[in-house]
Amino acid sequence: MLQKITLADGTETFLNEAIGCTYHSQAGIVAEALQRYVLPCRITELAQQEELHILDVGFGLGCNAAIAIEQALEQNPQCRISVVGLEIDE
Questions:
Q1: Burial class (CB in 10 A: 0-12, 13-18, 19+), 21
Q2: Contact at 8 Å (CB) between 77 and 47?
Q3: Do 84 and 56 meet the contact criterion of CB atoms below 8 Å apart?
């Protein structure tokens, strides 16, 4: 069962009671996506190309992919982006 949780930045995530873990850190969805996904994957650098292909393993609510797309398009509005998301939860 999923329980809605409000994070420090006001964004909301869910607690997956089956595994006892929230989908995002308590700091907030945006900060986590930038620190743990966008920056390590060099999204803004790679967005300078014509195409950007994103693989999001553990897609969850899709927030990492959404923020990665937002950051990429800020750098290069003409970049064509494709996303493949893998997720175990329905």
A1: exposed
A2: no
A3: yes
Q: SS3 of 63, please?
A: helix
pLDDT tens digits in sequence order for the chain, 90 residues long: 788 999 998 989 888 888 888 888 888 999 999 999 999 999 999 999 999 999 999 998 899 999 999 999 999 999 999 999 999 987
pTM of the entire predicted model: 0.80
CB atoms within 10 A of CB 2: 13
CA distance linking residue 63 with residue 67, whole number of Å: 6
SS (H, E, C) 27-61: CCHHHHHHHHHHCCCCHHHHCCCCEEEEEEECCCC
β partners of residue 42 = none
